[in-house]
Design goal:
By secondary structure, this protein is mainly beta. The protein has one helix and ten strands. β7 and β8 form a beta hairpin.
Length: 171
């Protein structure tokens, strides 16, 4: 009877010790936040706030993906992009938590919605998502050229020099 009691006690200690070890460590050193999937996905672009994109213009779209600790996800994590018009890189991998896609507008002006997704399973986008909105200019892209400036030099107010000039531009 005494041998059975000792065996039960040893078995209990081994079982509890095994449970404690499995809770305190994992194959990645205990960091469970290092998962491939992110906790935050945020889109931005190379356009300045309020800036219009020219017809057939090209911009960079950035998807910043972070884990639950707010750190960039592992390099090589995929982000998927879809645009309501125009063309965009459909899949890009993160480097330093950022995936880069290139968007090219069509020859039509109007509003464009770009979506990014964390995963694509059986043809369906899912996981984290974000939207980015931009406007493609309705009119043709234009340039302004300076034709002439008369006189060549203008003075500041109350300087005694000529303060009035003529500027001619070509659009």
């Amino acid at each position: 009877m005494r041998i059975v009691g000792v065996c039960v006690a040893l078995f209990t200690l081994l079982l509890l010790g095994g449970c404690a070890d499995s809770d305190s460590s994992s194959s990645d050193g205990g960091n469970t936040d290092a998962a491939v999937t992110g906790e935050s996905l945020t889109l931005s672009s190379s356009l300045a706030s309020g800036e219009l994109l020219a017809k057939q213009g090209t911009i960079s779209i950035y998807a910043d993906v972070t884990n639950s600790a707010g750190q960039p996800v592992a390099d090589g994590t995929s982000a998927y992009f879809v645009a309501s018009s125009g063309s965009i890189t459909s899949k890009a991998s993160t480097i330093g938590g950022r995936a880069l896609a290139t968007y090219t507008a069509t020859s039509q002006g109007g509003n464009v919605t770009i979506n990014a997704y964390e995963n694509l399973v059986a043809g369906t986008y899912g996981g984290l998502t974000d939207e980015y909105f931009l406007t493609v200019a309705a009119g043709p892209a234009v340039q302004i050229f300076t034709v002439s400036i008369t006189p060549e030099h203008l003075g500041l107010s109350s300087s005694g020099k000529n303060e009035v000039g003529t500027f001619v531009f070509s659009v």
